[in-house]
Amino acid sequence: MSDKPTTEQVCQLLDALYLHGSDEASKYLVQIQESVFGWEIADSLLKLNRNEHSSYFAACTMRYKIKEHFDEIPVESHNALKDSLITNILSMPDANKTITTQLGLALADLAIVLPSWTNIVDDFINKFSTDLSCVPFLLTLLTLLPEELMFNDTLQVKQSRWEDCKRLLTDDITKIFHLLSICLEKFPDTETILIKVFDCIASWLTLGNLPIEELSKSPLLLLPFQAVTQATTSEEVFEAAADCISSQAYSVEYTPEFQTFSQQLSENIMSLRPVFQACQEVDDFERSKSLAKCFMSYLDSYLPYILKDPDSGFGSVLSLELLVDCINHGSIKIGEMTFDIWDNMAELLERYHESEITDPYKPIFRSLMIGMWKLCQYDKDTQLDTILNEDHNSDFIRFRSVSVYELMHDVMWIYGELDTFKEMFQILLRSENTWTESESALFMMHIVADELRESKSELIGQLVRTLLSLQDNCHPLVKRSAIKVLHHLSDWINCNQELIDPVLRFMITSLRNDRIKSAAAAGIQAICFSCQDKIHLSHFEGLFQVLQSAEELGLSNDSVVTILKSLGYIISHQPPDKYESCLSNVVALQVKPLHQDVKILRIENISAETGLRESAKQWQRPENSFYFTTIDDDYELPKSSLSIGSRPPLVRPRKSRFIPEVSIERPQSPPRDVSIDIPVISVIPEEDPDEFYIPIGQLGCEVCKSLLCQIRREIGELKLMSKSLTVKREEIADYQKQADELERSKHELKRQITKQSNNSQIKVGPELFSPSSYDFYTSQSSIDPYTPQWEHPNGSGMDREYSDHPEPTGDTFSVLLSDYKAGQDQLRQLLANQDTIIIVTPATTIPVTGTKNDPCIWLDRLSSIFRSSVAHFQDVHPAASIVKEVSTDYIHLTMGTFT
């Protein structure tokens, strides 16, 4: 801004802003604040005092300039600025609170940043105490001064000046207390003054290093306690008094000279317990909340001293009852205020007592458990369908599932997991319980159940049998929580295998209850995972029937996924004669609809006429083999050739939960022994085919140490394209939801691998995606995803082009199958003893995406292992597939000798 605007022009801009909401006026006013003219304009507007809008703008501008652009004022003008600002404030005794607050902040900031101002408090008192009408502003100014010094990090003040200011204010605190006492005498019945006095005391106590023992003799520190104990105290005074008490609690230091003050404060705090209980009885939430804040501030400050040296005078163990009072209040918000203190207490007890918890603390934590049980009870009037809605995310649901869950895991070891379990079981057995009380007890039990996996207590067996005896007419929430308890006791059930069968039957039966079937499916997965080596094959048949009836039962996609994982755990421990048939049944159930839509033709001769380049003439195909190939858009497919439609479009790498981006280095040359390209079917959104791919792999097998099966339910009306299925855009959200579930199950996957690492039997795992590295990735390889070209062994190349998509031909189920980690030695041994294997492609898009899950890369690397065990294969194209048999259940890939 080159020209200075006049005061009248600025007033017109302010009118345009406040009366008409002009954006142009707002921008111009910002430029004025940023310019060097802002100082003079703000001073002129304050002197003019035209209206509230202009005065407020001037006060804000003055504070902004002092805070951000104080260096624009030459040193010789500093005192003039101070005097002018004080004069303007004194000329506006009737300004509203908003304007006086901004002026007070401006003057306080100026006092801090002005190096020559060394008698700040005296100047303030002398300037603003002579006129009683200025006393409210003086108290506001004195309240803002320590706050700006201690908490305003945006002030451009040197460290030396900051330390000088802090020392100056600390030395003047006795003057402040004396002034406040005089103000109370001058205005004995004025609530506004009393509130400002409480605020000022609280502000100055934040400075620290105060002569607290001397100040404790002042009646001012007792005044807030007196205020909160009087029933006639207004809400505003009550809140200000509570804030003042909290500041007193934080002003203490663990030194002998603070002992007298600490004892006095502790006694005063404990005297507020009856007040808190009285507020609770009359359901005065705001006052209860203010008192709870006082209690938590006191315990937060004194807790280390109470636990480390309870007889030192810095509080006593009895003061911990304040926590119990807040937990038992009945309000979630007040109860949650205590959680940080409980958490800190558990950490300090472990540190000070080296995990040997003394008896005085156990009753306190027992009270916490009972209080949590009460707070976690549902409101009887809450709509059941709202609670059972898995997407429902109310404050109460978050409180139970996050806040309570985390706190209990942090502190339960103090009272004892088994003791907590026993306490809740005793509540559960009471005949007079309402359903909300029983459900809350079960909720608390499911939190600690994970820690009881090695417990030999008969109590747990009694609980399990009690839960299994629940009637069908039991409240759905009670039954759902019972299933969750069994879910989290899965490791304990594994050690008590006589209960596996009744527990699984109980959960399978619960799948027919629409309101708890999701919890039942998750429970079944947990039991099958923990007890997979002890589950009888009969349960496979039961779960398989559930899978066949999934649509009739109305199971969600997530529930179907958990049932499939459970079947995978059972299959993984079946003997070889049962393994193949069980796996075939599961895979066939999902793959069969695909075979109804995909027609496979047999190829007789491969030549340029089929859409390949001349170099393809040199290829020699094994007799009676199938070849899934690329057909260029410019050529017509002869009737004698085989193809599953045309090549799907290339996919640009993108970050996706389903398609992880992993770069792989390009090999020097493709392997010559054998390369097998399993065709891949992709699901893409109809309107945006180049941006999103959901992969569908093919079959399941005995080549991997841990086979990962994940089969999707029918996703609606799909359009079958060549090697692609088109899915409606609204279905994509369902894929992402399932991807999130798969991410959450990764820790289970790691546990399974560890558990099965020394077992030579083929396993079925719970995850969709293959791991980030394989033992059989012995050589570095890479495919440039942006280069749709493969190099033939003789040096020539073949382009992979985009293709047109044919019209849809029907509906289908989507299948997601993947491979898992297998060692080289195991593969060599396996291939040396059999000539028929079933290979599952990792779930991916197409063989040119450049991801580690790429089937062609996977099989290329696998072929290097074949070399030592399988006879020589003739050179074939790296994208070729050798398929000997196609059935309605699965495809066999036969490795034979070809000469």
Automatic annotation (TrEMBL):
Gene Ontology CC terms, in alphabetical order: cytoplasm
Segments forming a coiled coil: 725-759
Keyword Coiled coil in annotation: yes
Domain Exportin-1/Importin-beta-like: 97-245
Ranges of Basic and acidic residues composition bias in the record: 798-807
Entries under Pfam families matching the protein: TPR_TNPO3_IPO13_2nd, TPR_TNPO3_IPO13_3rd, Xpo1
Signal sequence coordinates: none
Keywords: Coiled coil
Organism: Oopsacas minuta
Keyword Methyltransferase included in the entry's annotation: no
Region called Disordered, residue ranges: 785-807
GO biological process: protein import into nucleus
Protein name: Transportin-3-like
Lineage: Eukaryota, Metazoa, Porifera, Hexactinellida, Hexasterophora
